[in-house]
Design a protein that fits this description.
mainly beta, 359 residues, FmdA_AmdA, 9-stranded mixed β-sheet, Formamidase, single chain, Jelly Rolls, hydrolase activity, acting on carbon-nitrogen (but not peptide) bonds, in linear amides, 22 strands
Length: 359
């Protein structure tokens, strides 16, 4: 059955059989990796709701504002030597009963609430313009205003050493604080930078590059009200979330978003009525296909080819789908700073044939 015959936004919210609470603790987090051999932190049934804590690994940019005692415990109990090969602090994994390789995991993100009223942006050595801007790292701390749903810079400081230790803690009371972005406000749009299923691979797989399992996609549209589809690669799916953000632009040019911990409410639904190769995002107005590669050209080609497949599944011929891609598809850069770069292709739901569920 094609995806469009029963897409998430055309179906009523599945009635959950249970609501689970997944706190981030040393036992329920894993730092820097996905691993198919990792024991589940939680086991759920299809349709269950999960209220989970997603913690930013950049909380140490100002521990007074961005960390509480529960987070300090995770930092203390997770040795720096065990934070590899990536950098992101992940909560999970979640085992979905009955999920088998080839199934699709539908994840409906229902709510994302900041844990604190502050977040951090790091202009890092992996940022696109690091060399051009004097090869220095700069932290900008933002305050979040829930009344206006905006963020405003509070202060900034420079860091002499590169960010090499995941979870690095700097002591801002001892740093040279500088004013930043006076009078500028940016919209708050909480989302997950990194989430996905465990890849079918031996050992640890870094959280840094995105891939067919999901991972570090860094698309700011993966927030409350969005649905993601991930292709299951191992039994149970082993789904994890992390790298929470409160605002980011397409490109993530400096290296990070406004990194801030989130409480995330989501529903997981096991789907066997369709399949799709790459992580697929559905919003009320669009289907968004992601492409990854060593270059933007390679990533753009992947996104275009997978969107072509999606449109053919909707009932279009190859030639018609190709034409629609050109006149209605919006191809854009997702991020350029994760080693494996990302693009996304947006196709409007209302541009699809009526029988496919387009509005």
């Amino acid at each position: 059955m094609p995806l469009f015959c029963d897409a998430g936004f055309d179906r009523p919210l599945a009635v959950p059989s249970a609501l689970h609470h997944l706190k981030a603790t040393p036992r329920t987090t894993h730092w820097g990796y996905f691993d198919a051999a990792l024991a589940p932190a939680l086991t759920v049934d299809s349709g269950d709701l999960i209220q989970a804590e997603a913690l930013t690994h950049h909380a140490g940019d100002d521990p007074d504002l961005l960390m509480d005692e529960d987070m300090h415990r995770i930092w203390r109990d997770t040795p720096e030597a065990d934070r590899f090969p990536g950098v992101h602090l992940m909560t999970g994994p979640i085992h979905v009963r009955g999920a088998r390789p080839g199934d699709m995991l539908e994840v409906r993100y229902l709510a994302m609430t900041p844990r604190f009223r502050y977040g951090s942006n790091l202009a890092a050595h992996w940022g696109q313009l690091y060399a051009e801007l004097g090869e220095r790292e700069r932290v900008t701390i933002y305050g979040l205003d829930p009344a206006t749903n905006t963020a405003e810079a509070v202060y900034a400081y420079d860091v002499a050493e590169k960010y090499l230790v995941p979870g690095r803690i700097t002591h801002c009371p001892e740093c040279d604080r500088q004013p930043a972005l006076r009078g500028v406000r940016v919209p708050i749009r909480p989302h997950l930078g990194t989430a996905g299923v465990a890849p079918d691979a031996m050992g640890r797989v870094s959280t840094i590059p995105p891939g067919l399992h999901g991972g570090n996609i860094d698309n700011w549209r993966i927030g409350a009200g969005a649905t993601m589809y991930y292709k299951v690669q191992v039994d149970g799916g082993l789904f994890s979330i992390g790298d929470p953000h409160v605002s980011q632009g397409d490109g993530e040019i400096s290296g990070t978003a406004i990194e801030a911990s989130l409480d995330v409410l989501f529903q997981v639904i096991l789907r066997r009525d369709f399949t799709f190769r790459s992580p697929l995002l559905e919003t009320p107005d669009h289907f968004i296909v992601h492409g990854f590669g060593d270059t933007l050209d390679a990533a753009a080609r992947e996104a275009s080819l997978d969107t072509l497949s999606l449109l053919k599944e909707a009932g279009l011929s190859t030639d018609d789908a190709y034409s629609l891609l050109s006149v209605s598809g919006d191809l854009a850069v997702t991020q350029v700073v994760d080693g494996t770069v990302g693009t996304h292709m947006k196709i409007r739901r209302d541009s699809l044939p009526p029988r496919s569920g387009g509005r």
